């Protein structure tokens, strides 16, 4: 079953084409990697999927529903995003994790927060201030905060590019485990081809805003 589909998705800003006519189907429970040179439109494409940016033309279907019929707040709950740098709110880890549900009038119980922290490998740290976290810990909190919203789709924009190798592998294992457990659909932008091979069954290659290739990861990355 297709979870997320883009149809002729394009974005142009001040005459500059960032994303051009990208049509792709992502299956439920699939991890799809997005690779390509710097400036190819990878992050621009990802930001269109939950309307952080608006497409100039084309659209996105979430479980066959045109995403323009979903309010942006609801869309961003259902299509969660973790950025390259963890943008956390000042205060405790618990306050960050509870933020999304709180916006919808839902209170997370301490046990729920602890459950999420255990899942991302940070048990017992609910009361720690986010200013005292390493880069890897901050990314784990960002993941837990996104998961607190029960998203159906997870967007990851180079989530490990600022981390050391040990943290990278830890976050990758976390992503794989969570996607399998929750049968979530996941799209990950990465400049690291080895990471794409470790995580993604299929990969798309973007060049100059266009979809240059799509297929099984190993086949696409070792073509030609």
Automatic annotation (TrEMBL):
Q: Which GO MF terms are attached to this record?
A: ATP binding; ATP hydrolysis activity; phosphate transmembrane transporter activity
Looking up SMART domains in the UniProt record yields: AAA
Name a single GO biological process: phosphate ion transmembrane transport
Record keyword Transport present = yes
Q: Where is the ABC transporter domain?
A: 4-223
Record GO cellular component, one term: membrane
Which keywords appear in this protein's UniProt record, sorted alphabetically?
ATP-binding, Nucleotide-binding, Phosphate transport, Transport
A Pfam family that this protein carries is ABC_tran
Q: Which PANTHER family match?
A: ABC TRANSPORTER I FAMILY MEMBER 17 (PTHR43423:SF1)
Question: Which protein family is it in?
Answer: Belongs to the ABC transporter superfamily.
| Biological role | Involved in beta-(1-->2)glucan export. Transmembrane domains (TMD) form a pore in the inner membrane and the ATP-binding domain (NBD) is responsible for energy generation.
Question: What name does UniProt use for this protein?
Answer: Phosphate ABC transporter ATP-binding protein
Origin organism of this chain?
Bradyrhizobium rifense
């Amino acid at each position: 079953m297709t979870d997320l589909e883009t149809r002729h998705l394009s974005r142009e800003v001040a005459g500059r084409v960032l994303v051009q006519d990208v049509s792709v189907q992502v299956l439920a429970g699939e991890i799809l990697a997005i690779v390509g040179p710097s400036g190819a439109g990878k992050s621009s494409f990802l930001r269109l999927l939950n309307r952080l940016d608006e497409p100039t033309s084309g659209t996105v279907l979430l479980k066959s529903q045109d995403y323009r019929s979903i309010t942006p707040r609801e869309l961003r709950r259902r299509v969660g995003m973790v950025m390259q740098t963890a943008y956390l709110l000042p205060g405790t880890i618990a306050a960050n994790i509870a933020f999304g549900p709180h916006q919808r009038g839902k209170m997370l119980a301490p046990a729920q927060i602890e459950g999420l922290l255990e899942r991302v490998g940070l048990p017992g740290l609910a009361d720690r201030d986010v200013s005292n976290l390493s880069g890897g810990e901050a990314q784990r909190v960002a993941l837990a905060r996104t998961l607190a919203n029960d998203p159906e789709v997870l967007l990851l924009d180079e989530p490990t590019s600022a981390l050391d190798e040990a943290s990278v592998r830890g976050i990758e294992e976390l992503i794989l485990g969570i996607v399998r457990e929750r049968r979530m659909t996941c799209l990950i932008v990465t400049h690291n081809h080895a990471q794409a091979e470790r995580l993604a069954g299929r990969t798309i290659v973007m060049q100059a805003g266009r979809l240059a290739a799509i297929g099984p990861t190993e086949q696409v990355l070792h073509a030609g």
